[in-house]
Amino acid sequence: MTERSGDKGTTDKLKGKAKEMVGKVTGDRRKEQEGKTDQAKGKTKETFDDVKGRAKGVGDSLDNDRSRDH
Known about the structure:
Oligomer: single chain
Shape: rod-shaped
Number of helices: 2
Helix content: over 70%
């Protein structure tokens, strides 16, 4: 089973939050920053997946309108 990019986004955000917390607790600023970066990547993947889904919906809607005209 493959993950959708939105699912990967959620995974990246959760992994990033965990890294950030570990970095804060241990004083590892690099780990903390990696966590923040992972969270940003996850949010980007979720946003991309949302935009892709909306574009597909618009395309499907246009296809339905064209088929009704003929």
